[in-house]
Amino acid sequence: MFNLELEQLDVKTAFLNEELDEVIYMCQPEGFVVEGKEDHVCLLKRSVYGLKQASRQWYKQFDSFMLSCDFFRSRYANCVYFRKLPDGSFIYVLIYVDDIFIAAKDMFEFDRLKSDLNGEFEMKDLRVAKILGMEILGMEIRMDRKVRKVFLSQKSFIKKVLFLLWYVRCQTC
User: Fold this and answer.
1) How many CA atoms lie within 13 A of 69 on its CB side?
2) Buried b (16+ CB within 10 A) or exposed e, 23-34
3) Are 140 and 133 in contact (CB under 8 A)?
4) pLDDT (tens digit per residue) in 119-160
5) What DSSP character marks residue 93?
6) How many CA atoms lie within 13 A of 152 on its CB side?
7) How many CA atoms lie within 13 A of 64 on its CB side?
8) Distance between CA 64 and CA 71 in Å, rounded?
9) Strand, coil or helix: what is 147?
10) SS3 113
11) Per-residue pLDDT tens for 42-72?
12) How far is 79 from 104, CA to CA, in rounded Å?
C-alpha cells in the first residue's frame, strides 16, 4: 500500500550550543577553576550536556525548523511531523531524543529533507542498512520489500527482561 523508504539520522550535537531562554549559572567545571576565584560561577550562554533544559531547547529548535519547512506537527504525538507532497503522498519525520527517522515514497523529497536537515544540524546519516536490523526502545524493525511487509519484534527486549528477572531471582535465593 504505502511501500515507504525508511532511514535514520543521528543528530551529533543535539544538546549542545542551543540558545537558552533563561539565566542559568553553574559552578566552574573541574580542571577549569580560576585560581583566586574559586567561589565564582559561570553564566551559561548556551546549553551543555547534562543540563535539564538542554533537551527542551533542542526540541524547540527542531520544532521551529520543521514548521519553517512546511511540516505539520501531529496533534497526537509531538514527535511526529508530516507534509503532503504534490503527488498526494506524504513524508513523515519521527524524532526520538537525538535520532530522526524519515519515511517517504518520493526519494527526491527524501533527499531534499536530509539535505535541509544537514544544513541546519550536524547529522550522521545511518541510512537504510542500520534500519533493517534497527532496534528502538527494545523493538527490532525489519522490512521485507518482496512481500511489502514490516515486521516488529521485541525478542531481544524480552530476553533481557527474562535474564534480569532470573538474575534478580537468583540474587534473592
Assistant:
1) 25
2) ebeeeeeeeeee
3) yes
4) 888 888 777 644 445 555 566 777 777 777 777 777 777 788
5) E
6) 4
7) 9
8) 10
9) coil
10) helix
11) 887 777 766 777 677 788 889 999 999 999 9
12) 17
DSSP secondary structure letter of residue 48: -
Cell of 152: 516488529
CA distance 72 to 58: 18
Instruction: Residue 11: name the closest of 75, 87, 65, 76 by CA.
Output: 65
**Sequence letter at residue 40:** H
d(CA 143, CA 150): 4
pTM over 0.70: no
CA distances from 5 to 43, 109, 125 (A): 45, 11, 14
| Pairwise CA distance, residues 30 & 28, whole Å | 7
Write phi, then psi, for 52 (nearest 5 degrees): -60, -35
- Rounded Cα distance between 76 and 84, Å, is 17
- The amino acid that residue 69 corresponds to is C
Maximum separation of any 2 CA atoms in the chain, in Å: 70
